Amino acid sequence: MEYIVETKNLTKRFGKEQAVSGLEMKIPKGEIYGFLGPNGAGKTTTIRMLLGLMRPTSGSVHIFQKDLRKERIRILNKVGSLVENPSYYPHLTAGENLEALRKIIGVPKTRIKEVLKIVRLEDVANKKVKGFSMGMKQRLGIAASLLNNPELLILDEPTNGLDPSGIIEIRQLIQRLPHDYGMTVIISSHLLSEIDQMATTVGVVSKGKMIFQDSIEEMRKFAKQKVVLKVSDSESAWRALLARGMRADWDEKNITLLNQSDENVATAVKYLVKDGFSIYRVEEEKKSLEDVFLQMTKEERLV
Amino acid sequence: MLPIMSSEWYKLSKSRILWILLVGPMVGLFIGLTANFDNLGGGPNEWYVKLLSMNLTYALLFLPLITGVLASVVCRYEHQEGGWKQLLAMPLTRGKVFISKYILLIALVMVMQLLYLGSIYLVGVIDGIPEPFPLNIVWKSIFGGWVATLPLVALQLWMSILFKSFAAPFAVNVIFTLPTILVVNSERFGPYYPWAQPFSMMYIGGNTEDIFFVPWDQLLIVVGGSFLLFFAGGYLYFQRKAV
Ligand SMILES: Nc1ncnc2c1ncn2[C@@H]1O[C@H](COP(=O)(O)OP(=O)(O)O)[C@@H](O)[C@H]1O
Ligand SMILES: [Mg+2]
Predict the structure, then answer these.
(1) Which residue in A17, B118, B178, B202 has the most C-beta neighbors within 10 A?
(2) Around Cβ B89, how many Cβ atoms within 10 Å?
C-alpha cells in the first residue's frame, strides 16, 4: 500500500520523558486521518516532527514516499499545516498575513482572496488579526495552510477554542477537502466525538504510543454506546431476558443490552414489563475516551 | 532567497518601527549643531571638531544600540504568536531565513549610516562651515562604521532568536556596549573589543594611512573574527532550534 505519510519507529524524548515512542503512523491517500489522544499524549510533538520543526530522537518520517530528512523542501511544497494555536503576525491584517506567506510560496495574489473566501474571512481581510476572535484566528490559520494548494493538510486541534457553530463550520470545511481538492488530511483532537464525526481513518495515541490504528468503522466498535437498564431484581430480570433469547450483560446492579437498536431496546422493555419487572431507568451510557482507551488496551489491539 | 527577503522586508515595513533609523542621525545632528568651535579649542578645520563630537555619541552608543533594537524587531513578530513555527513549516531552509534577516538588518544599518552622513552635511550647511565637505574622510568613516557593526548585527540576531523577550537581547547589547566608553581609551583593550570597533572605525582622528582608520590586521582579526564567530553561532543555533 502507498502511504502519504509513514513514520517508522518515530521517537522523541525530552530529557527523561518519552513524549513519543516508536510511533508507526500509516496514512493512505485521500483519507481524513483522525489523530486522537488525550492532552499530553504526544500529538503536537508528532506533528512538529512531521513538519521538520523538531528533530526526532530516533526513527524516520516519509511523506509522499520521500524521506523528510533528505527532501524536506520538496515535501513541504505540498503540505499545509496549522500547529497548536494559530500562528499569525499581530501587527498585520488578515490579508497582509497571507501576503507575507504568499511571497515565499509564490502563488498568484488571487489565491489570497480564494482562501479567505473558503474560510469566510473576506470581509475582515483588512482588519488587524490582533483583534480577531479565536475562531477567526483559527480560520485564518486554515486559510494560510491552504495557500499553497497542499496535497497533505495537517491540522493540530483546529477546533480548539471555537464555539459550537464555529466547530460545525470547520468540520464541514474539512470534510469537503478530500473530495473537492483531492487532499489527504490529518486532524488531531482530544475529543472522541469530533474524530468520530470527521475522520475516515483513526490513529489513537496514548502516552506517546499508538494503541490503535484502523478505519473509523473498526474504532466505532470500541466506542459503541451501551443501553443500560435499571430494574427491580436485576439478576432475575437478566435471566428472563436471556431466556427470551436476548443478548445482555449483567453487573450486579444493571443490565446492559448488547444490541442497542431502537427495536431491540423496545422489545427488551416489553418483555421485562410482561414478566412483571419494574423498570426504573433506561439510559444510554456514553463512553468516555478513557473507557475506549481502556478497552483498546484490554483487547490488545496494539499496533 | 529573494522571495524570503521580500517577505521579510514586507513584514518589517508594516511594523512602523523604521522611524527608529532616524534617532541616531537626529541625535548626531543635534550634537553637531551644539558643538562649539571656540570652546573646543578649535583646530585647523571646523569639520573635524563637528565630526569628532558627533561620532563620539553616535558610534559609541546609538549605532550599536539601535542595531540591536532592529535585530530584536525582526524576530519579535516571529516570537509573538507562533510566527516561527508557521514560517519554518514553509518550503524554505532555515539557513536562508537567517541570512535573509541578516541581510535586511545590515541594509538598514547602511541606510542609517547614510542618514547620518546627511546629518553631517546638514550641520555644515546650517552652521555655514566655510571649508569644503571632507568627503574623502567622511565616507571612510561612514562605510567603516558599517563594516564594524557587521559582527554586532550577527550577535544581536542570534540573541534575538534565542530569547523570546524583547528585553533580554537588549540587555546583552547594553552590557557589551556600555564598557566601550572605557575601553576606547585603553590602548591595550580598545583594538580588540568588537563593540569598540564602530567607534574606532568611524574615528577620523585615527591613522588616515590605514583604510578605515584602523590597521588592516585589526580589521581582519577583530572585526572579521568576531563576525565569523557570531554569524556561525547564530546560524548553527537557528538550525537546531526546536520550534
Ligand atoms: N518542548 C518541549 N520540552 C519538553 N517537554 C515537552 C515539549 N513539548 C512537549 N513536551 C511534553 O511532551 C508531552 C507531549 O506533549 P504534546 O505533544 O504537546 O501532547 P498533545 O499535543 O498530545 O497534547 C507532554 O508531556 C509535554 O509536556
Ligand atoms: Mg497538542
Answers:
(1) B202
(2) 24
Report the CATH number at residue A271.
Answer: 3.30.70.260
Q: Provide CB contacts within 8 A for A137, sequence distance 6+.
A: A86, A88, A129
Which residues are A27's β-sheet partners? A5
Per-residue model confidence as pLDDT tens digits over A265-296: 999 999 999 989 999 999 887 777 677 777 77
- Distance, in angstroms, between B7 CA and closest chain A CA? 5
Residue A162: closest CA among A152, A174, A150: A174
Pairwise CA distance, residues A152 & B89, whole Å? 13
Q: Is residue A294 part of a domain?
A: no
Place of cell 474539512: A174
For the segment A44-87, what is each residue's pLDDT rounded down to a tens digit? 999 999 999 999 999 999 999 999 999 999 999 999 999 999 99
Tell me the residues of B at the A interface, defined by beta carbons under 8 Å apart: 3-4, 6-7, 10-11, 14-16, 77, 80-83, 85-86, 88-93, 240, 242-243
In the DSSP assignment, the letter for residue B133 is: P
What is the model's pTM? 0.87
Residues A158 and A232 in one domain: no
CA distance A86 to A34: 19
CA dist B53 to A223, B60, B191, Å? 79, 11, 20
Total domains in chain B come to 1
The residues pairing with A156 across neighbouring beta strands, listed in sequence order, are: A188
Cα torsion for B84, A80, A191, A65, to the nearest 10°? Answer: -110
| One domain for residues A83 and A157 | yes
